[in-house]
Amino acid sequence: MIVVTGSEGFIGKALCDHFSTLDYRLIRVDKENTEDAVESGWLLDQESDFWRSITHVVHLGAISDTRAALEDVLEQNLIFSIKLFEICRKYDIPFIYASSASVYGNSLEFSETKIRFNRLNYYSMSKSFFDFYVTGRMNELSTPVIGLRFFNVYGPTEYKKGGMASPVTTLAREIILKKEATIFDIPGEYSKGRQSRDYVYIDDVLHFINHLLNKPPKSGIYNLGTGLSTSMNELVKVLSDELGISPKVSFFSPTQSIIDSYQLYTKANLNLNKNSQLPTSRVTLREGIQRIHKENMFGLIDG
C-alpha cells in the first residue's frame, strides 16, 4: 500500500492516476477530505498496524503559493512533513518527498550536494528547512529517503493551479485568449524576457518517481529537471509556433517585492542522477506543448 499526500494537486493527482494504471494500491491524502482522499490529520492519527501495511510514502502535499501566510506554510510544509518523516523513520518505510528547485534561489549552481538556505519566499524557506532536517538524519536511516527538487513541472490540467501555474501554461492561456504575451522586465542581465527556466513535462516526472519505487538510489536529494534552460522569449516563440498564433509581446516592470522573490534562471545539474543511473527526461518542451494543445488541456474551450 502506497500513501500519496497532495493527491488532489497537479502532480499528486497525475501520479495517483498513473499508479492506478499500474494496479498499485493507494491511500490518497490531501488537506481536506474529498470523495477520493482522506484529510492529512487523519493520516498522522493512525496506529502501528496501519503503518506496518504501508510500503512507501510519496509526500507531495505542500502549500506552494508564495503569497501564503508564514504560519500556514510552516505548519504544512515543515511541521507536518517532519511528523510524517519521523513516522516513516520509526516504521522503516521508504520516504519520497517533494523538495523544490526554488531552494537554489538566484544561485547559478544547481548541485544537490550543497544544501542551501534560500530566503526568496516562505515556500522556498520551508523547503530549505525540511531539506536540512532530513539530510541531517541521513546516516540514521535504514530505508531509502529521497528528496526531489522539482524544477518547473508542466502538463495537462496544470491550469488548475491558477496563479501558481508555470509560465508554459500562463503564457499559453494569455496567447490563446488575448493574442498577447506579457513578460516581466527585470533590470540587469535577465531583462526583457531573458529570464530562463528548466521545464520538465509531467509524464517524465511520473516515470521518474515510479522508477524510484522499484529501483531506489542511495538516500539523498536529487534534481528533477531536464538539464536545459529556456528563456521566456524562446518559450513564447515555441508557443506561437505550436498554437498557430503570433502574439503581441509586451514587457512590464514588476514590483520590488516580486523582483526580490523571483528566480531569474534555473537549470538542473543532472550529474548525480547520471551517476545513480536515474531516468532522463524524454519529452522536449515543444513535444510537451504539442501534447497539451492536442488534448485541449490548457483549460480553455477554444484552446
Layout of SSEs?
Layout: E1 2-5, H1 10-21, E2 26-30, E3 38-39, H2 40-44, H3 48-51, E4 56-59, H4 70-90, E5 95-100, H5 122-135, E6 145-150, E7 152-154, H6 167-178, E8 180-184, E9 196-197, E10 199-201, H7 202-214, E11 220-224, E12 230-231, H8 232-243, E13 248-252, H9 256-260, H10 271-275, H11 285-294
Helix pairs in contact: 1-7, 4-5, 6-8, 8-11
Which overall shape is indicated by the principal axes computed on the Cα atoms?
globular
- Strand arrangement within the widest β-sheet reads 3-2-1-4-5-6-11
CATH-level-2 architecture of the largest domain: 3-Layer(aba) Sandwich
How many domain units?
A: 2
Our estimate of the beta-strand percent is 15-25%
Q: What would you call the structural class?
A: alpha/beta
CATH superfamily of the largest domain: NAD(P)-binding Rossmann-like Domain
Kindly state the number of beta strands. 13
List the secondary-structure elements in sequence, H or E. Answer: EHEEHHEHEHEEHEEEHEEHEHHH
Please report the distance between the alpha carbons of the first and last residues: 38 Å
The mean pLDDT is 93
Description:
By secondary structure, this protein is α/β, with parallel strands linked by helices. It folds into 2 domains: 2-152 and 200-224, Rossmann fold (3-Layer(aba) Sandwich); 156-197 and 228-267 and 283-294, UDP-galactose 4-epimerase, domain 1 (Alpha-Beta Complex), CATH 3.90.25.10. The protein is 37% helix and 17% strand. The protein contains 11 helices and 13 strands. It has a 7-stranded parallel beta sheet with strand order 3-2-1-4-5-6-11, with helices on both faces. The protein has a two-stranded parallel ribbon with strand order 7-10. Helix 1 links the parallel strand 1 (2-5) and strand 2. Helix 6 (167-178) packs across helix 8. The termini are far apart.
